[in-house]
Amino acid sequence: MKTLPASPDLSHLKKQAKALLRDALAGESTAVQRFIETLPALQNRQIAALAEDALKLHDAQSVVAREYGFASWSELKRLVEWKRSAAAKRIETWLSWVFEGNSSARGSAIRMLREGPALFADDPWLACVTGDTPRIRQALSADADWVHRPGGPSGMTPLIAVTHSRLILEQPFVAGLLASAELLLRAGADPNATWIDTRFPDSPLPALYGAAGRTHHPAMTRLLLDAGAKTDDGESLYHSVESRDLACTRLLLDAGARVIRTNAIGRVLDFDRLDGLLLLLSHGGDASERPWIHHAILRGRSLNHVRALLDHGADPRAEDDNGVSLFRWALLHGREDVVGLLRERGVDEALSEEDAFVVACTRADEAGARTILARVPDVVARLGSVQLQVMPQLADIGDTEAVRTMLSLGWPTEVKTAWDTTALNLVIFRGDAEMAQLLLSHGADWRTRHGFGDISLGTLSFASRFGEIDDTAPGDYVGCAEALVAAGVPFCEFERYGFSEDVMAFLDECLSATGPQRKGEAVPAL
Fold first, then answer.
1. What angle separates helix 456-466 from helix 501-514, to the nearest 10 degrees?
2. CA neighbor of 233 nearest in space, from 197, 257, 249, 265
3. Strand partners, 473
4. 3-state DSSP assignment of residue 224
5. Which of 50-59, 271-280, 297-306, 377-386 has the lowest mean pLDDT?
6. Is the dihedral of CA 9, 11, 12, 13 positive or negative?
7. Angle of helix 171-186 versus helix 133-142 axis, rounded to 10
8. Dist. CA 82–CA 77, nearest whole Å
């Protein structure tokens, strides 16, 4: 295995990958053999046959990374950038991987911990993050009040640092983190203490939220509940339903967590998890507390979700905050199955001309919509905000044919819906490349800012690296990048952001193929 120098240079490593790819495509046997020996998918291939394949730059980057002992190019890149940063920045970056990173980022954090232990040795709060029980015991012996004191780079108390550490999702750290939590609780740590994430200053976050709502770890959750953690903290139950495994949700409910006034039903409807919805409804969830069926339709949930809510008392004549009835909402969103169910329960309404036009579009009935358009030429201009927002809402749940029909009939592409977000940002967040290409081909503007203050490239950056999206999301972030490039986004705009390994490899390949002249000039956001 190759060894990186003490101060590795990423540009030099990129050149190694490009040279390897060039030699392999030229049929140089040693270069091709490196691909075969390093990448499992290419093993047992003949050298001559492999040289004829369309090997890509990301393949070469993977070879270089694995020859240095890394699982992927992104992990190699992380370590190089981490080694070249200042000590304080290293800790900040490392903590972001541990508290918020995916499996790949946690793998990088573990490697940094192993290769640079001196950086972490003097900080007992960092020992809490890793579950270093001897170091924690030493800190308690030196200062018994330390157990209550916020500190460290994130301003957490020791127990909160333990319970928020996503290293508990990696088997070698489970026992240490659980033992550390037990040790701190025995030393008097408050199981209901909170900390403030500076990004969300109005939302104090308790230790239980870390266990049940962030790491979704049943053993840590049970440990805190047994120590007296309060279940009704406004965060834990809501976020617990984000996990495919509902064990933590069950623990909270069994301990007396209240479902009403938590919005947990709304959150579980963000995911295609009927079992989670039924669990909440069976533990006191109020199906009529809010217009939940409106939200279920908005999120593309099944008829079984709707039926479950109705069977548990949801009002079939409910209206949302804008006064839109459930019947009308279902029609506007193309949910004829829900409309049929409501009619079975005695609910029916007449449609306005504008609503009839929207309904024809959501059914992808272009001929019917054009008939209305011929009769009412200004029908699109007459649409209200509720009607106009149907397009980005359907784009968000992948209804391609309905959106295609709307766009072909002149629907404005820059309509904003929840979070002050356009359809393009919503579909890029989900990794829906086909929908992104469709929107861009009809003039959707990649520069439009959304409610979080960034543009579509920022959305792609976040979602490709950190997004924990609905189970049904396509997740094709390379395809989204390809759609943006094809739409003429200058490469220099991408350079402002970090992306997942596969997206970065795609962009590098584009630059290698077209040359630096394609970088273009920066374009101001709208």
1. 130
2. 257
3. none
4. helix
5. 50-59
6. positive
7. 20
8. 8
CA distances from 78 to 106, 120, 241, 283 (A): 11, 18, 31, 44
HSE-up of 60 (CA within 13 Å, CB side)? 24
In 3D space, the residue among 59, 64, 36 whose CA is nearest the CA of residue 48 turns out to be 36
Q: Report pLDDT digits (tens) over 89-110.
A: 888 889 998 998 888 889 889 9
Written as six digits, the tokens of 168 are 């508990």
Residue the block writes with tokens 């240079």: 9
How would you write 183-205 as a 3-class SS string? Answer: HHHHCCCCCCCEECCCCCCCCCE
pLDDT digits (tens, 9 = 90+) for 395-434: 999 999 999 999 999 999 999 999 999 999 999 999 999 9
Question: What residues contact residue 377 under an 8 Å CB cut-off, 6+ apart?
Answer: none
d(CA 70, CA 62): 9
Write the Ramachandran bin of 300: left for phi over 0, alpha for psi from -120 to 50, otherwise beta: left
As a whole number of angstroms, the distance between CA 362 and CA 383 comes to 14
**What string of DSSP letters covers 383-405?**
--HHHHTHHHHHHHTT-HHHHHH
Q: Is 206 helix (H, G, I), strand (E, B) or coil?
A: strand
Which positions ≥6 away from 388 have C-beta within 8 Å?
411, 412, 415
Within 10 angstroms of residue 102's Cβ, the number of other Cβ atoms is 15
Q: Nearest 5°: phi and psi at 356? A: -60, -35
**319 forms bridges with which residues in the sheet?**
325
User: For 223, which DSSP code?
Assistant: H
What angle separates helix 10-25 from helix 29-38, to the nearest 10 degrees?
110
Could you tell me the sign of the dihedral formed by the alpha carbons of 243, 246, 250, 251, in that order?
A: negative
Look up the pTM and report it: 0.87
The per-residue pLDDT for range 434-475, each reduced to its tens digit, is: 999 999 999 999 999 999 999 999 999 999 987 665 667 899
- Which residue ranges form the domains of the chain, and what is each CATH number? 10-84 (no CATH), 421-526 (1.25.40)
Three-class DSSP category at 146: helix
CA distances (Å), 60 to each of 11, 21, 65, 102, 247, in order? 14, 6, 9, 24, 42
Residue 259 has pLDDT above 80, yes or no: yes
